[in-house]
Amino acid sequence: MNLVKTVALLGILSALLVTVSYWLIGGTTGATVGLLLAAIMNLGSWFFSDKIALAAYNAQPVSQAQAPALYEMVERLCDRARLPMPDVYIIPTASANAFATGRDPHHAAVAVTEGIMRILPEDELEGVIAHELSHIKNRDTFTQAVAATIAGGISWLTQIASYSMWFGGGSRNENRANPVVMLLTIMLAPVAASIVQMAISRTREFAADAGAGNLTGNPRALAQALQRLEQNARQMPLNANPAFAPLLIINGFSGRMMANLFSTHPSTEARIEKLLQLEQKLLG
Question: What is the pTM of this model?
């Protein structure tokens, strides 16, 4: 059911891109451009999703010699999960976060920040790595990258249209939407894209948490890590293109109310509660 829901949501996101193109570029030509953009972005995501996400967060590749403890941890968990060894990256920032990316388990990468390695004890970092490997095993990384790329395309189109409206003197093209429709599209399309992207992300996070708890046999460690990471995110959010926020294990935010309304992840409290329930199940 999660797979069907995810595919449906990706379809809605692609349809939204076509609709935005129809209104902002104009008529059938705009819709055709939207279809081409959706096809190109999905194809581009297939081949370049990992590179795009890693570049968005300035992730730097590291060798086993450069980060032996991190490498050993990833390798040990991959052996346990029967996954190929992904590429390992470190993000040079004090913010504490992590993500995984790649189109399939054979073309995957795990990235962690310097901050997360600094503040988490070994068992909690292991839980975070296991969470990211669960995303790879479930192929969530490709799904999230496609969603991020399409959402980013919608945001780009609306920004271009906004500049055109305010600084370009408008258009005399008869197929172009009237200014009111354009303004509404510019305002609402990115919000709609974000909502769909949130729905996609939220369907995957609980499964990845559960996968991590089962993989390590220690769900409480991940629960403690999530609590620690949320506190850090309030103080030092990992800033980048918002379209890639769903890739992160936890989202940075400035206020609890807005976080609950627009977070790309389930609430940390809900995730912790489910992990503790899993702990009881494993102990029982």
Answer: 0.75
